[in-house]
Amino acid sequence: MEERYSLTDQLRRSSHSVCANLAEAWRKRRYEAAFVAKLSDCEAEAAETQVWLKFAVKCQYLEREQGKQLYATYNQVLSGLVHLINKSHRWIIK
To answer: What is the CATH number of domain 2-90?
Structure first.
């Protein structure tokens, strides 16, 4: 039971951090380096969320199909973040 709670907590924290770091990045668009740094933090949290999803499936706390769908959603999130990082100059406030 404790392991399940801990895993749920980690999953919740990392997924919330994706959103929080994205919001911070967006507010730092005046400075490209700060913008990219926060987007990189966001990318790392999204990847961490995928790791916790894998653990949840392996521990049978999450159905395999649901885990695959959530993992795929985070692949889309990561793709968008990489695009933002690679084209960060387009989003900078001048």
So the answer is: 1.20.1440.60
